[in-house]
């Protein structure tokens, strides 16, 4: 049966998902269900969402609901190959004979149906959608599939939007840590061209969503953060006639002013981060949450509230600290709401969204709740590399080093405990460097740049004051690791008896 099923695209081709933990699968399932309940979808969108949902339910061993969802797809569209092939796999678990009958029917349809090639391409495109939703390490596989199906059907705007959205995610989040040899300039040009084509030619709400993505991409480029820099921006402006972000968001909101959660959510983020219009941002984000509460909407509403919290601190707290890590007081009226939205974002993601975890950890630092900050940073460090942007994992390692160093300054602890904390501090700052190298952060943070990072500079500055030979030796090793042999030798020169 498995050999016969190889000729048909189906959800079990997503075998990588079986390696994801239960929380990750549940998080994807919850998101798909929420979208299904709150979005207006085309037949193609309904089918691909429900097929993915039924497969996830099957992996969760909820076989009854999996089969019920699968049946709904077939009742709605009895030519959907993914649903028909999934039915074979589902049924084979309890009735081999019936499963073989279903497979016979599928093979017969493949031989006789005049539109079979189109149906097969639709099934293939469904897999691209699923791969893009599974994990960042699957982005390139999704892009490969999208490219092949769009070549056959260049006017299928849903697939074009899928390619553009996946490309944008890859470029802005994981390009520097996935494939250092990939042509990022070419990817950006392709992404912008595809999304603009969708924005100018597709129907609502797809065109509005494409306008939002165009605005987001230009804002990311303008920020000159992550994979972007001034030289790249100059080269891109020679190749792309960019539309100003504000115009993109205005067009999106004009098309979908009050009924599309995605457009409202992303427009709210723009008004918060770029326009610094907290009132407008909260209005848009709260409306988005009413329609469909997501990790993104709760996270960015929390960030918007934090902007207001900082303004309150400046106005009412004479002891306000300029260091962004330690600047919130417990009596700030925005704290409860801020923490509440971060907790909702973490709950929705089942703790798998490291951007939200990072923001929660830093909020705990700002409130000087060091124990909770440490727990959250440790959670980030333990996440797989492929699911975490390099800069977030490196930052978490740096902060853990800071926290260990801080605890080691406690005069009431024993010398043994102090040595243990110092050892752990060295481990995490070294791990930050090694993680940056391993995850190819040198595309944006070379070794010379790393020495200028706040955490490395402050930690090594503090530890260099020591007269302990072991401590100085470890500091020297950090500089050796970053290729600064001269500084390392100078530090080792302070060690008695060291040659």
Report on this structure.
The protein has 499 residues and is mainly alpha-helical. It has four domains: 134 residues, Serine Threonine Protein Phosphatase 5, Tetratricopeptide repeat, CATH 1.25.40; 121 residues, Serine Threonine Protein Phosphatase 5, Tetratricopeptide repeat (Alpha Horseshoe); 106 residues, Serine Threonine Protein Phosphatase 5, Tetratricopeptide repeat; 98 residues, no CATH class. The chain is built from 25 helices and no strands. The protein starts with a helix and ends in a 7-residue tail after the last helix.
List keywords for this structure.
0% strand; mainly alpha; Serine Threonine Protein Phosphatase 5, Tetratricopeptide repeat; 4 domains; globular; 499 residues
Q: What characteristic shape results from the CA principal axes?
A: globular
* CATH domain fold name of the largest domain: Serine Threonine Protein Phosphatase 5, Tetratricopeptide repeat
Number of helices: 25
Radius of gyration: 26 Å
The first-level CATH class name of the largest domain: Mainly Alpha
CATH architecture of the largest domain: Alpha Horseshoe
Ends distance: 70 Å
Strand fraction equals: under 5%
Low-confidence stretches: none
State the total count of DSSP E strands: 0
Largest sheet: none
The total number of structural domains is 4
Helix content: over 70%
- Report the average pLDDT across residues: 91
Question: What's the SSE pattern?
Answer: HHHHHHHHHHHHHHHHHHHHHHHHH
Structure class: mainly alpha
């Amino acid at each position: 049966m498995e050999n016969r099923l190889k000729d048909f695209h189906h959800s079990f081709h997503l075998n990588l998902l079986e390696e994801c933990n239960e929380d990750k699968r549940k998080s994807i399932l919850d998101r798909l269900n929420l979208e299904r309940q709150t979005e207006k979808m085309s037949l193609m969108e309904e089918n691909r969402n429900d097929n993915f949902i039924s497969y996830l339910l099957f992996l969760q061993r909820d076989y009854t609901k999996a089969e019920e969802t699968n049946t709904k797809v077939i009742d709605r569209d009895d030519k959907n190959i993914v649903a028909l092939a999934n039915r074979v796999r589902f049924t084979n678990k309890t009735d081999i004979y019936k499963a073989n009958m279903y497979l016979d029917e599928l093979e017969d349809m493949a031989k006789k149906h005049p539109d079979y090639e189109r149906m097969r391409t639709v099934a293939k495109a469904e897999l691209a959608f699923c791969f893009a939703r599974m994990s960042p390490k699957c982005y390139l596989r999704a892009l490969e599939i999208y490219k092949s199906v769009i070549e056959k059907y260049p006017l299928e705007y849903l697939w074009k939007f899928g390619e553009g959205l996946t490309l944008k995610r890859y470029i802005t989040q994981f390009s520097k840590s996935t494939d250092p040899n990939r042509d990022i300039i070419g990817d950006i040009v392709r992404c912008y061209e595809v999304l603009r084509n969708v924005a100018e030619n597709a129907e609502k709400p797809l065109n509005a969503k494409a306008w939002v993505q165009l605005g987001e991409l230009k804002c990311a480029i303008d920020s000159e953060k992550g994979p972007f820099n001034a030289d790249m921006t100059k080269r891109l402006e020679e190749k792309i006639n960019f539309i100003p972000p504000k115009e993109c968001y205005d067009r999106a909101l004009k098309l979908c002013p009050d009924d599309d959660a995605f457009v409202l959510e992303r427009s709210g983020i723009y008004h918060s981060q770029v326009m610094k219009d907290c009132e407008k941002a909260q209005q848009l984000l709260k409306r988005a949450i009413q329609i469909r509460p997501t990790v993104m909407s709760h996270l960015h509403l929390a960030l918007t509230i934090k902007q207001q919290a900082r303004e309150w601190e400046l106005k009412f707290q004479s002891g306000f600290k300029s260091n962004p890590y330690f600047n919130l007081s417990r009596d700030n009226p925005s704290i409860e709401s801020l923490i509440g939205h971060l907790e909702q974002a973490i709950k929705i993601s089942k703790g798998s969204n490291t951007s939200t975890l990072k923001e929660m950890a830093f909020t705990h630092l700002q409130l000087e709740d060091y124990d909770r900050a440490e727990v959250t940073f440790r959670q980030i460090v333990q996440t797989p590399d492929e699911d975490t942007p390099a800069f977030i994992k490196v930052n978490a390692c740096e902060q853990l080093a800071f926290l260990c160093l801080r605890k080691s300054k406690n005069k009431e602890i024993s010398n043994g405990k102090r040595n243990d904390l110092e050892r752990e501090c060295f481990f995490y700052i070294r791990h930050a460097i090694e993680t940056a190298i391993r995850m190819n952060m040198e595309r944006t943070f070379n070794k010379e740049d790393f020495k200028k990072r706040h955490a490395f500079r402050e930690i090594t500055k503090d530890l260099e004051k020591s007269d302990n030979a072991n401590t100085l030796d470890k500091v020297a090793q950090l500089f050796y690791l970053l290729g600064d042999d001269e500084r390392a030798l100078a530090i080792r020169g302070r060690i008695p008896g060291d040659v």
